[in-house]
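Hi C.,

You asked whether I'd gotten around to modeling the 254-residue construct. I have! Everything is below, sequence then structure, no commentary in between.
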Amino acid sequence: MNLKDIILDILFPRFCLGCGKEGGYICPSCSLYVSEALLICPVCFKESFSGETHPSCREKYGLDGLVSIWQYDGIIKEAIKNAEAGGAYDILRELTQKSFKIIATDPSRRFDDFLSFLSSGETLVSFVPMRKIKESKRGFNQSEVIAKELAKIIGRSCVSSLQKIKHTEDQASLKKEARLQNVKNCFSPIKNEIKNEPGSHEPGSSKKDIKNLKNVVLVDDVFTTGATMRECCRVLKQNGVQKVWAFSLAHPSN
């Protein structure tokens, strides 16, 4: 922990969202009651040992795999919703750190394919974009916060590769088929590489021309029906990206 983090912990102590104990947003005791998610195929949602897309489910412009760490319920759901509502970056950073610890230490080696993809020198981390109006109103993009923390942990670049170009309804209020239509053609690739200007709000990342990307880990906070991530993946692959794995902190239990 660096000096800045120590000072922040003193000025703004963190309390467990489950029991109120000081020290972190999910204390070791409450972590025992958090349910890890089974890895699933991002197309059919049936179990996949490594999270890789089943051979029979593969599509030309489809996701190559999905890693979600927890079931979206209980304290995990509360933590993510608290972060979104209150702008608490530290909750998302803590969850990302905890999730990667699970990935790196899992004795079953179920994350080996994902770790191999992450460690490739041709892999960069990106995220699902928000409309600028909504992001400005909220003050941050939660998917970008997670992506930036993941990139920091693995020593990779976090890049903004897509932009959202039209308004969509809140996905949570829609049924599965409506969600697919809702996000159709709402993303476009970023054409030119641009660095964030000094003083830009937290978090920061570079914007990168999509044609320069080969492998991408696409990050969102929750993988629900997968409609948004699949649409992002379609745009990425139609514009030259070869492989895309999705990463989220959680997905709803089936």
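If it helps when you're writing up: The first helix runs from residue 3 to 11.

Thanks,
B.
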